[in-house]
Amino acid sequence: GPRELDRHSKWPMVLRIHGSCLPELVLPLLFIGVWTTAVCLFSRHVRDLGISSTLLTVLGFVVALSLSFRSSTAYERYMEGRKSWTTLMTASQNLARNIWINAEEREDHAKDDLIAKVTALNLIVAFARSLKHRLRFEPYTHYDDLRDLVQHLDTFAKEATELEPERDDPGPVSHWESWGGYLGVSFTISNPRKIIKRAKYPLGNLPLEILNHLTVYIHGIIDAGCLKANPYQTQALNSVLIMNDVQTTTDRILNTPLPLAYAIAISQLTWVYILILPFQLYSTLGLIAIPGTLFAAYIILGFAFIGQEIENPFGHDVNDLPLDNFCNQLAADIDIIATSAPQDTDTFVKSKQNQIMHPLSHEGSEVWKERSLEEIRGALKQKALASMKNVKPRVRSRHNTDKDDGRYERVRASGREVV
């Protein structure tokens, strides 16, 4: 699965295997090694097959340009997926905070309103987790992290889950499929979309249906007068729109890969270049062309494989986005928002532990309340001057630094420095 961010490896990057493209390149490099060895031995003992290196220069430029295009396109998709999930985290937290703080609980229906608010917060978490499963071609509702959050909703995915007992059970994985997938053999890699193709009942769009339920809740609290201020209402509906926009953006990334003609052409050009490489290197390197070709093939195929792997950043590969961690973090953040009831401002503003002039003074707000406005504003100015002393100067030219130092000395000489 995707890399666990809380785990730390002490191995240097150059020696790490987990997450690298080396396992998937074992078979291609083995084939290239055999091919290069055969070409070099034939040229040494039978007939010299060496050719001019002019073709090496021309094709090398084209291959480099193609791989650069492939890598930049794939990384752009990866970054767009990461930014989309960041946007989802922000919109979800804003919506949860807006509902929890700004949606009032009516005195005669306080318990019902509280239960409804908690339900809405759970739907926000359910949206993120259902979107994660949708992007991984897991369209049902029986998954451990999702089932309890959506089993009370009337959705197409729930109905399909109940009507299809076998659902998406892939069955036992053979050793051939396991090792073939680890080594990147395309013939053993299963089509992730086959679960959707085999579905006997409509699967619907679970994240979109969850947004429908969230919108119904928002309209309900607006009609009931719980969410009174127009800015709060607008913010809540805008958050839902942003969540919907994130879904459409991630769907676009998933369903619009690099055009097939580009992918095929880049793959063919890369392999042609590698296969004719020993013919061009043998004339100048001799048998050293064997390790030289292998090293060049590792670099070229490595960049091609990386571009192919991160093109879809939502899967289960090591270098994919850690969507499980993102969803768990969002669930924890929303639970933190709901840990306490909305507080009155006075509970923390008038607290004795509220040191409003920290670090200039450790006195509480009640002490400063007894002082005049002029004393408070004067203390704020002294606090600013004290804070500026702790700011490290930016790197500037010597001329500008000398002028700034002179101005600072004049400030100190004027007696405005806090002692």
Brief descriptors of the model:
single chain, mainly alpha, 419 residues, membrane, flat, 0% strand, transmembrane helix, transmembrane, 2 domains, disordered C terminus, chloride channel activity, 16 helices
How would the blueprint of this fold be written?
Layout: H1 22-45, H2 54-102, H3 110-135, H4 147-150, H5 156-163, H6 175-182, H7 194-198, H8 206-223, H9 230-255, H10 260-285, H11 289-309, H12 323-337, H13 346-349, H14 365-369, H15 373-389, H16 398-413
Helix pairs in contact: 1-10, 1-11, 2-3, 2-9, 2-10, 2-11, 2-12, 3-8, 3-12, 8-9, 10-11
Biased composition (Basic and acidic residues): 399-419
GO cellular component, one term: plasma membrane
Organism: Lentithecium fluviatile CBS 122367
**Proportion of strand residues:** under 5%
- In round numbers, the mean pLDDT is 84
Largest sheet: none
The tally of structural domains comes to 2
Helix content: 55-70%
Total count of helical runs of at least 4 residues: 16
| General form | flat
Low-confidence stretches: 396-419
How widely separated are the two ends? 57 Å
Membrane topology: Multi-pass membrane protein
Keywords: Cell membrane, Ion transport, Membrane, Transmembrane, Transmembrane helix, Transport
Protein name: UPF0187 domain membrane protein
GO cellular component, one term: plasma membrane
Protein architecture, described:
With 419 residues, the chain is mostly helical. The protein folds into two domains: 13-337, no CATH class; 352-413, no CATH class. Helices cover 65% and strands 0% of the residues. It has 16 helices and no strands. α1 (22-45) crosses α10 (260-285), α3 runs antiparallel to α12 and α10 packs antiparallel against α11 (289-309). The longest helix has 49 residues, at 54-102. The two termini are 57 Å apart.
